[in-house]
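INSTRUCTION: Work out how this chain folds

Fields: amino acid sequence; protein C-alpha coordinates

Chain under study, with its fold:
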Amino acid sequence: MRSEHEVGATVHSDIPPRLDALGWSRWHRRVVLALGITWILDGLEASLVANLAPTLRDASTFGLSAGEIGFANTVYLVGQVVGALVFGHLTDRLGRKRLFLVTIALYLAATAASGAAPNYATFVVLRFFAGAGIGGEYSAINSAIDELVPARIRGHIDLAINGSYWIGVALGAGLTLVLLDAVPISIGWRVAFGTGAVLGLAILLVRRDMPESPRWLLNHGHVSAAQATMQDIETRVGAPAGAFEPVAIKVFGTVGIRHLLRTLLVRYPRRTILGATLMLAQAFFYNAIFFSYGLILQKFHAVDADDVGLYIVPFAIGNFLGPLVLGRGFDRWGRRVMIPATYAVSGVLLLVTGGLFVQGRLDAVTQTLCWSAVFFVASAAASSAYLTVSELFPVELRGMSIAVFYAFGTLVGAFAPTLFGAIVDTGEPVNLFAGYALAAGLMLVAAVVARAFCVAAEGKSLESLTAD
Protein backbone atom coordinates (compact mmCIF):
# COMPACT_ATOMS: atom_id res chain seq x y z
CA MET A 1 0.00 0.00 0.00
CA ARG A 2 1.47 3.35 -1.08
CA SER A 3 1.31 6.28 1.33
CA GLU A 4 -0.74 9.28 0.21
CA HIS A 5 1.36 11.73 2.24
CA GLU A 6 5.06 12.27 2.67
CA VAL A 7 6.76 11.54 5.96
CA GLY A 8 6.65 14.70 8.07
CA ALA A 9 3.33 15.89 6.65
CA THR A 10 0.41 16.64 8.97
CA VAL A 11 -3.04 15.24 8.25
CA HIS A 12 -6.26 16.21 10.00
CA SER A 13 -8.78 13.51 10.70
CA ASP A 14 -11.83 12.92 12.89
CA ILE A 15 -11.23 9.15 12.94
CA PRO A 16 -9.64 9.02 16.44
CA PRO A 17 -12.54 10.78 18.18
CA ARG A 18 -15.01 8.68 16.18
CA LEU A 19 -13.29 5.52 17.40
CA ASP A 20 -13.47 6.75 21.01
CA ALA A 21 -17.15 7.68 20.68
CA LEU A 22 -18.29 4.25 19.49
CA GLY A 23 -20.64 2.35 21.75
CA TRP A 24 -19.46 -0.99 23.12
CA SER A 25 -20.73 -3.60 20.69
CA ARG A 26 -20.68 -7.19 19.49
CA TRP A 27 -17.91 -6.17 17.08
CA HIS A 28 -15.74 -4.99 19.97
CA ARG A 29 -16.31 -8.26 21.78
CA ARG A 30 -15.25 -10.15 18.65
CA VAL A 31 -12.05 -8.08 18.47
CA VAL A 32 -11.33 -8.77 22.12
CA LEU A 33 -11.87 -12.50 21.61
CA ALA A 34 -9.80 -12.76 18.44
CA LEU A 35 -6.87 -10.71 19.71
CA GLY A 36 -7.05 -11.22 23.46
CA ILE A 37 -6.78 -15.01 22.99
CA THR A 38 -3.02 -14.47 23.13
CA TRP A 39 -3.23 -14.04 26.88
CA ILE A 40 -5.18 -17.28 27.23
CA LEU A 41 -2.58 -19.13 25.16
CA ASP A 42 0.27 -17.75 27.25
CA GLY A 43 -1.56 -18.69 30.43
CA LEU A 44 -2.14 -22.17 29.07
CA GLU A 45 1.57 -22.57 28.28
CA ALA A 46 2.69 -21.31 31.68
CA SER A 47 0.13 -23.50 33.44
CA LEU A 48 1.12 -26.62 31.55
CA VAL A 49 4.76 -26.22 32.50
CA ALA A 50 3.95 -25.33 36.11
CA ASN A 51 1.54 -28.25 36.53
CA LEU A 52 3.70 -30.67 34.61
CA ALA A 53 6.85 -29.72 36.53
CA PRO A 54 6.53 -32.58 39.04
CA THR A 55 5.68 -34.96 36.17
CA LEU A 56 8.77 -33.94 34.19
CA ARG A 57 10.87 -34.90 37.21
CA ASP A 58 9.61 -38.48 36.95
CA ALA A 59 12.06 -41.02 35.50
CA SER A 60 9.45 -42.15 32.94
CA THR A 61 9.55 -38.69 31.34
CA PHE A 62 12.74 -36.58 31.28
CA GLY A 63 13.71 -37.06 34.94
CA LEU A 64 14.53 -33.35 35.37
CA SER A 65 15.70 -31.53 38.46
CA ALA A 66 13.85 -28.45 39.73
CA GLY A 67 16.75 -26.36 38.40
CA GLU A 68 16.43 -27.87 34.90
CA ILE A 69 12.69 -27.19 34.89
CA GLY A 70 13.39 -23.62 35.99
CA PHE A 71 15.93 -23.25 33.18
CA ALA A 72 13.39 -24.43 30.58
CA ASN A 73 10.94 -21.85 31.90
CA THR A 74 13.63 -19.19 31.70
CA VAL A 75 14.36 -20.10 28.08
CA TYR A 76 10.65 -19.77 27.26
CA LEU A 77 10.65 -16.29 28.79
CA VAL A 78 13.80 -15.30 26.89
CA GLY A 79 12.08 -16.47 23.70
CA GLN A 80 9.19 -14.16 24.53
CA VAL A 81 11.63 -11.27 24.81
CA VAL A 82 13.24 -11.97 21.44
CA GLY A 83 9.86 -12.40 19.79
CA ALA A 84 8.51 -9.19 21.30
CA LEU A 85 11.50 -7.15 20.07
CA VAL A 86 11.56 -8.61 16.55
CA PHE A 87 7.84 -8.59 15.93
CA GLY A 88 7.34 -5.35 17.87
CA HIS A 89 9.47 -3.57 15.28
CA LEU A 90 7.64 -5.29 12.44
CA THR A 91 4.18 -4.41 13.75
CA ASP A 92 5.11 -0.70 13.82
CA ARG A 93 6.59 -0.99 10.34
CA LEU A 94 4.13 -3.31 8.57
CA GLY A 95 0.96 -2.89 10.59
CA ARG A 96 -0.83 -4.70 13.39
CA LYS A 97 -2.84 -7.06 11.22
CA ARG A 98 -0.02 -8.54 9.14
CA LEU A 99 1.75 -9.95 12.17
CA PHE A 100 -1.25 -11.80 13.61
CA LEU A 101 -0.97 -14.93 11.48
CA VAL A 102 2.83 -15.10 11.52
CA THR A 103 3.19 -14.99 15.28
CA ILE A 104 0.33 -17.38 15.98
CA ALA A 105 1.70 -19.84 13.39
CA LEU A 106 5.12 -19.79 15.04
CA TYR A 107 3.55 -20.50 18.41
CA LEU A 108 1.38 -23.31 17.03
CA ALA A 109 4.28 -25.14 15.41
CA ALA A 110 6.63 -24.82 18.38
CA THR A 111 4.17 -25.77 21.11
CA ALA A 112 2.88 -28.79 19.19
CA ALA A 113 6.47 -29.92 18.58
CA SER A 114 7.27 -29.46 22.29
CA GLY A 115 4.99 -32.38 23.04
CA ALA A 116 6.94 -34.54 20.61
CA ALA A 117 10.42 -33.56 21.85
CA PRO A 118 12.66 -36.65 22.09
CA ASN A 119 14.96 -35.22 24.76
CA TYR A 120 15.46 -32.32 27.13
CA ALA A 121 17.74 -30.30 24.82
CA THR A 122 15.18 -30.36 21.99
CA PHE A 123 12.41 -29.50 24.44
CA VAL A 124 14.30 -26.41 25.61
CA VAL A 125 14.89 -25.18 22.03
CA LEU A 126 11.22 -25.61 21.16
CA ARG A 127 10.19 -23.75 24.31
CA PHE A 128 12.26 -20.82 23.06
CA PHE A 129 10.34 -20.65 19.76
CA ALA A 130 6.97 -21.09 21.45
CA GLY A 131 7.87 -18.14 23.67
CA ALA A 132 8.97 -16.11 20.63
CA GLY A 133 5.56 -16.59 19.04
CA ILE A 134 3.71 -15.47 22.15
CA GLY A 135 6.09 -12.55 22.74
CA GLY A 136 5.56 -11.40 19.17
CA GLU A 137 1.82 -11.49 19.70
CA TYR A 138 1.97 -9.16 22.70
CA SER A 139 3.26 -6.11 20.83
CA ALA A 140 0.82 -6.29 17.94
CA ILE A 141 -2.15 -7.36 20.04
CA ASN A 142 -1.83 -4.79 22.82
CA SER A 143 -1.22 -2.02 20.29
CA ALA A 144 -4.26 -2.92 18.22
CA ILE A 145 -6.59 -3.35 21.18
CA ASP A 146 -5.72 0.04 22.70
CA GLU A 147 -6.09 1.70 19.31
CA LEU A 148 -9.56 0.18 18.74
CA VAL A 149 -11.15 0.36 22.22
CA PRO A 150 -12.99 3.59 23.24
CA ALA A 151 -10.96 5.76 25.63
CA ARG A 152 -13.64 5.92 28.33
CA ILE A 153 -13.37 2.16 29.02
CA ARG A 154 -9.81 1.47 27.88
CA GLY A 155 -8.58 0.82 31.41
CA HIS A 156 -10.93 -1.89 32.57
CA ILE A 157 -11.15 -3.52 29.12
CA ASP A 158 -7.35 -3.77 28.99
CA LEU A 159 -7.22 -5.23 32.48
CA ALA A 160 -9.97 -7.74 31.74
CA ILE A 161 -8.17 -8.90 28.59
CA ASN A 162 -4.88 -9.24 30.40
CA GLY A 163 -6.62 -11.09 33.20
CA SER A 164 -7.85 -13.68 30.70
CA TYR A 165 -4.34 -15.11 30.97
CA TRP A 166 -5.74 -16.96 33.96
CA ILE A 167 -8.45 -18.63 31.92
CA GLY A 168 -5.57 -20.31 30.14
CA VAL A 169 -3.99 -21.17 33.47
CA ALA A 170 -7.21 -22.82 34.67
CA LEU A 171 -7.56 -24.69 31.38
CA GLY A 172 -4.01 -25.97 31.70
CA ALA A 173 -4.59 -27.06 35.28
CA GLY A 174 -7.80 -28.90 34.43
CA LEU A 175 -6.24 -30.46 31.38
CA THR A 176 -3.27 -31.86 33.26
CA LEU A 177 -5.56 -33.27 35.94
CA VAL A 178 -7.57 -35.17 33.35
CA LEU A 179 -4.72 -36.32 31.15
CA LEU A 180 -2.34 -37.39 33.90
CA ASP A 181 -5.15 -39.37 35.52
CA ALA A 182 -6.50 -40.94 32.32
CA VAL A 183 -3.29 -41.94 30.53
CA PRO A 184 0.26 -42.84 31.55
CA ILE A 185 2.27 -39.74 32.46
CA SER A 186 4.88 -40.61 29.83
CA ILE A 187 2.20 -39.87 27.22
CA GLY A 188 -0.13 -37.47 29.03
CA TRP A 189 2.35 -34.61 29.28
CA ARG A 190 2.98 -34.78 25.53
CA VAL A 191 -0.73 -34.67 24.68
CA ALA A 192 -1.15 -31.68 27.01
CA PHE A 193 1.17 -29.52 24.92
CA GLY A 194 -0.79 -30.32 21.77
CA THR A 195 -3.91 -28.65 23.17
CA GLY A 196 -2.33 -25.21 22.84
CA ALA A 197 -1.89 -25.82 19.14
CA VAL A 198 -5.53 -26.89 18.78
CA LEU A 199 -6.76 -23.72 20.50
CA GLY A 200 -4.49 -21.59 18.31
CA LEU A 201 -5.78 -23.20 15.13
CA ALA A 202 -9.34 -22.38 16.13
CA ILE A 203 -8.54 -18.71 16.63
CA LEU A 204 -7.04 -18.38 13.14
CA LEU A 205 -10.59 -18.56 11.77
CA VAL A 206 -11.78 -15.79 14.07
CA ARG A 207 -8.95 -13.45 13.07
CA ARG A 208 -9.67 -13.49 9.36
CA ASP A 209 -11.96 -10.46 9.46
CA MET A 210 -10.00 -8.32 11.90
CA PRO A 211 -9.26 -4.82 10.54
CA GLU A 212 -6.02 -2.93 10.46
CA SER A 213 -5.81 -0.21 13.10
CA PRO A 214 -7.12 3.06 11.55
CA ARG A 215 -4.72 4.95 13.82
CA TRP A 216 -1.75 3.04 12.39
CA LEU A 217 -2.99 3.72 8.86
CA LEU A 218 -3.23 7.47 9.53
CA ASN A 219 0.23 7.51 11.07
CA HIS A 220 1.63 6.00 7.86
CA GLY A 221 -0.26 8.38 5.59
CA HIS A 222 -2.90 5.90 4.36
CA VAL A 223 -5.79 8.28 4.90
CA SER A 224 -8.19 6.73 2.37
CA ALA A 225 -7.62 3.24 3.76
CA ALA A 226 -8.15 4.56 7.29
CA GLN A 227 -11.41 6.22 6.24
CA ALA A 228 -12.65 3.05 4.51
CA THR A 229 -11.76 0.94 7.56
CA MET A 230 -13.52 3.38 9.87
CA GLN A 231 -16.65 3.38 7.72
CA ASP A 232 -16.70 -0.41 7.75
CA ILE A 233 -16.40 -0.43 11.55
CA GLU A 234 -19.23 2.11 11.87
CA THR A 235 -21.38 -0.01 9.55
CA ARG A 236 -20.95 -2.93 11.93
CA VAL A 237 -21.20 -0.97 15.17
CA GLY A 238 -23.32 2.08 14.31
CA ALA A 239 -21.89 5.54 13.66
CA PRO A 240 -21.76 7.83 16.72
CA ALA A 241 -24.04 10.86 16.57
CA GLY A 242 -22.75 14.39 16.00
CA ALA A 243 -19.72 15.97 14.39
CA PHE A 244 -16.20 15.53 15.72
CA GLU A 245 -13.32 17.97 15.76
CA PRO A 246 -10.48 16.64 13.57
CA VAL A 247 -7.15 16.10 15.29
CA ALA A 248 -3.75 16.81 13.78
CA ILE A 249 -1.70 13.68 13.10
CA LYS A 250 1.89 13.78 11.93
CA VAL A 251 2.86 11.17 9.35
CA PHE A 252 5.91 9.34 10.69
CA GLY A 253 5.96 6.16 8.64
CA THR A 254 8.60 3.70 9.84
CA VAL A 255 10.81 5.04 12.61
CA GLY A 256 14.19 3.76 13.77
CA ILE A 257 16.05 3.20 16.98
CA ARG A 258 17.12 6.85 17.23
CA HIS A 259 13.50 8.03 17.31
CA LEU A 260 12.67 5.35 19.85
CA LEU A 261 15.53 6.31 22.17
CA ARG A 262 14.80 10.01 21.86
CA THR A 263 11.14 9.40 22.74
CA LEU A 264 11.94 7.18 25.71
CA LEU A 265 14.93 9.04 27.14
CA VAL A 266 14.41 12.67 26.15
CA ARG A 267 10.73 13.26 25.47
CA TYR A 268 9.24 10.99 28.15
CA PRO A 269 11.92 10.05 30.70
CA ARG A 270 9.44 9.93 33.62
CA ARG A 271 7.13 7.62 31.70
CA THR A 272 10.09 5.43 30.80
CA ILE A 273 11.13 5.08 34.44
CA LEU A 274 7.51 4.33 35.35
CA GLY A 275 7.04 1.69 32.65
CA ALA A 276 10.37 -0.03 33.33
CA THR A 277 9.76 -0.20 37.07
CA LEU A 278 6.22 -1.54 36.78
CA MET A 279 7.17 -4.18 34.24
CA LEU A 280 10.25 -5.34 36.11
CA ALA A 281 8.46 -5.68 39.45
CA GLN A 282 5.43 -7.55 38.16
CA ALA A 283 7.49 -9.87 35.92
CA PHE A 284 9.76 -10.98 38.76
CA PHE A 285 6.84 -11.23 41.19
CA TYR A 286 4.78 -13.46 38.91
CA ASN A 287 7.54 -15.61 37.49
CA ALA A 288 9.01 -16.25 40.92
CA ILE A 289 5.78 -17.52 42.45
CA PHE A 290 3.90 -19.08 39.58
CA PHE A 291 6.62 -21.11 37.88
CA SER A 292 7.61 -22.66 41.23
CA TYR A 293 4.01 -23.16 42.39
CA GLY A 294 3.80 -26.89 41.72
CA LEU A 295 7.31 -27.53 43.05
CA ILE A 296 6.52 -25.79 46.34
CA LEU A 297 3.31 -27.73 46.82
CA GLN A 298 5.14 -30.99 46.20
CA LYS A 299 8.30 -30.22 48.20
CA PHE A 300 6.90 -28.46 51.26
CA HIS A 301 3.30 -29.72 51.43
CA ALA A 302 3.67 -33.29 50.07
CA VAL A 303 1.09 -32.78 47.30
CA ASP A 304 1.12 -35.57 44.74
CA ALA A 305 2.25 -34.55 41.28
CA ASP A 306 -1.09 -35.66 39.79
CA ASP A 307 -3.02 -33.37 42.18
CA VAL A 308 -1.12 -30.11 41.61
CA GLY A 309 -3.75 -28.89 39.15
CA LEU A 310 -6.41 -28.97 41.89
CA TYR A 311 -4.54 -26.22 43.70
CA ILE A 312 -3.90 -24.19 40.56
CA VAL A 313 -7.60 -23.74 39.73
CA PRO A 314 -8.57 -21.56 42.74
CA PHE A 315 -5.35 -19.60 42.31
CA ALA A 316 -6.25 -18.95 38.66
CA ILE A 317 -9.80 -17.93 39.58
CA GLY A 318 -8.50 -15.32 42.02
CA ASN A 319 -6.14 -13.95 39.38
CA PHE A 320 -8.90 -13.74 36.78
CA LEU A 321 -11.43 -12.09 39.07
CA GLY A 322 -8.97 -9.45 40.33
CA PRO A 323 -8.79 -7.39 37.11
CA LEU A 324 -12.53 -7.86 36.51
CA VAL A 325 -13.51 -6.59 39.95
CA LEU A 326 -10.84 -3.90 40.35
CA GLY A 327 -10.54 -2.91 36.69
CA ARG A 328 -13.34 -0.34 36.63
CA GLY A 329 -11.56 1.57 39.36
CA PHE A 330 -8.75 2.38 36.94
CA ASP A 331 -11.23 4.35 34.81
CA ARG A 332 -13.33 5.67 37.71
CA TRP A 333 -10.75 6.60 40.35
CA GLY A 334 -7.84 6.86 37.96
CA ARG A 335 -4.40 5.40 37.27
CA ARG A 336 -2.66 7.54 39.91
CA VAL A 337 -4.75 5.95 42.65
CA MET A 338 -5.19 2.37 41.50
CA ILE A 339 -1.74 1.51 40.17
CA PRO A 340 0.23 2.45 43.33
CA ALA A 341 -2.46 0.89 45.54
CA THR A 342 -2.51 -2.49 43.81
CA TYR A 343 1.29 -2.73 43.71
CA ALA A 344 1.65 -1.82 47.39
CA VAL A 345 -1.09 -4.15 48.64
CA SER A 346 0.35 -7.03 46.58
CA GLY A 347 3.77 -6.62 48.18
CA VAL A 348 2.39 -6.44 51.72
CA LEU A 349 0.16 -9.49 51.26
CA LEU A 350 3.07 -11.57 49.91
CA LEU A 351 5.19 -10.63 52.94
CA VAL A 352 2.39 -11.74 55.25
CA THR A 353 2.04 -15.01 53.33
CA GLY A 354 5.79 -15.60 53.50
CA GLY A 355 5.80 -14.98 57.23
CA LEU A 356 3.01 -17.50 57.81
CA PHE A 357 4.78 -20.03 55.62
CA VAL A 358 8.15 -19.82 57.34
CA GLN A 359 6.41 -20.20 60.72
CA GLY A 360 4.83 -23.44 59.53
CA ARG A 361 1.26 -22.17 59.82
CA LEU A 362 0.21 -23.03 56.26
CA ASP A 363 -0.76 -26.33 54.71
CA ALA A 364 -1.44 -26.91 51.00
CA VAL A 365 -5.00 -25.54 51.21
CA THR A 366 -4.28 -22.43 53.27
CA GLN A 367 -1.13 -21.75 51.23
CA THR A 368 -3.27 -21.78 48.09
CA LEU A 369 -5.89 -19.51 49.68
CA CYS A 370 -3.19 -17.02 50.69
CA TRP A 371 -1.65 -17.04 47.23
CA SER A 372 -5.12 -16.55 45.71
CA ALA A 373 -5.70 -13.47 47.88
CA VAL A 374 -2.26 -12.04 47.02
CA PHE A 375 -2.74 -12.46 43.31
CA PHE A 376 -6.34 -11.22 43.26
CA VAL A 377 -4.71 -7.82 43.74
CA ALA A 378 -1.39 -8.54 41.99
CA SER A 379 -3.14 -9.61 38.79
CA ALA A 380 -4.72 -6.16 38.47
CA ALA A 381 -1.34 -4.56 39.23
CA ALA A 382 0.47 -6.60 36.60
CA SER A 383 -2.21 -5.90 33.99
CA SER A 384 -1.93 -2.16 34.66
CA ALA A 385 1.75 -2.30 33.71
CA TYR A 386 0.83 -3.40 30.18
CA LEU A 387 -1.89 -0.75 30.03
CA THR A 388 0.64 1.92 31.05
CA VAL A 389 3.33 1.16 28.48
CA SER A 390 0.77 0.81 25.71
CA GLU A 391 -1.26 3.98 26.20
CA LEU A 392 1.48 6.46 27.15
CA PHE A 393 3.63 6.30 24.00
CA PRO A 394 2.85 7.43 20.42
CA VAL A 395 1.39 5.21 17.73
CA GLU A 396 4.47 5.19 15.48
CA LEU A 397 6.43 3.24 18.08
CA ARG A 398 3.74 1.76 20.29
CA GLY A 399 4.66 -1.80 19.31
CA MET A 400 8.35 -1.23 19.99
CA SER A 401 7.62 0.57 23.26
CA ILE A 402 5.61 -2.38 24.53
CA ALA A 403 8.36 -4.72 23.37
CA VAL A 404 11.19 -2.78 25.02
CA PHE A 405 9.48 -2.54 28.40
CA TYR A 406 8.27 -6.10 28.22
CA ALA A 407 11.79 -7.25 27.30
CA PHE A 408 13.37 -5.30 30.14
CA GLY A 409 11.00 -6.65 32.75
CA THR A 410 11.00 -10.18 31.43
CA LEU A 411 14.79 -10.45 31.07
CA VAL A 412 15.13 -9.63 34.74
CA GLY A 413 12.10 -11.68 35.68
CA ALA A 414 13.33 -14.60 33.56
CA PHE A 415 15.90 -15.43 36.21
CA ALA A 416 13.19 -15.83 38.84
CA PRO A 417 12.14 -19.40 37.85
CA THR A 418 15.75 -20.59 37.92
CA LEU A 419 16.36 -18.83 41.24
CA PHE A 420 13.23 -20.20 42.88
CA GLY A 421 13.83 -23.65 41.43
CA ALA A 422 17.21 -23.66 43.15
CA ILE A 423 15.62 -22.35 46.36
CA VAL A 424 13.06 -25.17 46.33
CA ASP A 425 15.87 -27.70 45.86
CA THR A 426 17.43 -26.51 49.16
CA GLY A 427 14.28 -27.54 51.02
CA GLU A 428 14.70 -24.62 53.46
CA PRO A 429 11.55 -22.55 54.20
CA VAL A 430 13.64 -19.57 55.33
CA ASN A 431 15.32 -19.42 51.91
CA LEU A 432 11.92 -19.36 50.24
CA PHE A 433 10.82 -16.53 52.53
CA ALA A 434 13.90 -14.54 51.46
CA GLY A 435 12.81 -14.97 47.86
CA TYR A 436 9.30 -13.82 48.73
CA ALA A 437 10.73 -10.76 50.48
CA LEU A 438 12.73 -9.85 47.38
CA ALA A 439 9.66 -10.08 45.13
CA ALA A 440 7.54 -8.11 47.61
CA GLY A 441 10.21 -5.42 47.93
CA LEU A 442 10.23 -4.87 44.16
CA MET A 443 6.45 -4.37 44.20
CA LEU A 444 6.66 -1.84 47.04
CA VAL A 445 9.36 0.14 45.21
CA ALA A 446 7.17 0.11 42.10
CA ALA A 447 4.25 1.48 44.15
CA VAL A 448 6.35 4.47 45.24
CA VAL A 449 7.51 5.15 41.68
CA ALA A 450 3.95 4.83 40.37
CA ARG A 451 2.63 7.34 42.88
CA ALA A 452 5.27 9.84 41.78
CA PHE A 453 5.19 9.31 38.00
CA CYS A 454 1.75 7.95 37.03
CA VAL A 455 -0.18 9.87 34.35
CA ALA A 456 -3.92 10.51 34.72
CA ALA A 457 -4.76 8.80 31.42
CA GLU A 458 -8.29 7.70 32.29
CA GLY A 459 -10.88 8.75 29.69
CA LYS A 460 -8.30 10.52 27.51
CA SER A 461 -7.68 9.79 23.84
CA LEU A 462 -4.35 8.25 22.87
CA GLU A 463 -3.59 11.32 20.76
CA SER A 464 -4.10 13.74 23.67
CA LEU A 465 -1.71 11.71 25.83
CA THR A 466 1.13 12.31 23.35
CA ALA A 467 0.13 15.74 22.08
CA ASP A 468 2.97 17.65 23.81
In short: The mean pLDDT is 87.
